[in-house]
Every structure is written in C-alpha cells, then in structure tokens.
C-alpha cells in the first residue's frame, strides 16, 4: 500500500471540501489510473470532473505533472516516478488557463 500525495486545483478543492493537497492510498502499481481511481473513491464528488465518465480520458484544461514533468499525454497505466510512489513528491493536477 502506497500513500500518494495529490495536489488539486482550487475549483476541485472547493467541490471536494479539501485542502490543496490530499493523500490517497494506492494498492498495487502507482499509475495515473490507480491514483485517480483512489482519488475518486475517496472523493466521489470528483467523479467525471478530472476524467470523462465513459472514456476515462483526461478532461480538457487539466494537466498532470510529477517531478517537474508534464505527464498529461502519458499512458494512464504507465508507472509514475518513484518519488511520487514513495510520497516524496506529489502528483499534481493543474487547471490550465485559457484566454482569448
């Protein structure tokens, strides 16, 4: 069992009634999918806000970062960096800013 630190953007913090960083437990390989599954299990109100309900694809205007790397286009089943799996670094969900 790994305890993963996850930072979430302000609008999702409000929805989840949480702080900027939460901790979730992941049993097995630490991947984007397993972390997001654990996050949605702990905070069911976030289901569908980070990933599409049907396709499970990342929502537009959200990005995933870990250890200063953009992981937004990586496979959801790719292992996250060891520092994230060991709780030394957070898995970051960042709200993108769009303008016109």
Major sheet size, sense and barrel closure? 5 strands, mixed
Question: Could you say which structural class the secondary elements and strand pairing correspond to?
Answer: alpha+beta
Q: How much strand content do the residues show?
A: 15-25%
| Whole-number total of structural domains | 1
Number of helices: 3
Helix content: 10-25%
Q: What's the CATH H-level homologous superfamily?
A: Beta-grasp domain
Classified by CATH, the class is Alpha Beta
Order of helices and strands: EHEHEEHE
> Which whole number gives the mean pLDDT?
93
What can be said about this structure in brief?
With 100 residues, the chain is of the alpha+beta class. The chain has three helices and five strands, in the order E-H-E-H-E-E-H-E.
Question: Your description of this structure?
Answer:
The structure is a single chain. It is built from 3 helices and 5 strands; from the N terminus they run βαβαββαβ. It has a 5-stranded mixed β-sheet, covered by helices on one side. The chain is 22% helix and 24% strand. The chain has a single domain (2-95), classed as Beta-grasp domain (Ubiquitin-like (UB roll)). The chain is α+β, with helices and mostly antiparallel strands and 100 residues long. The radius of gyration is 13 Å and the shape is globular.
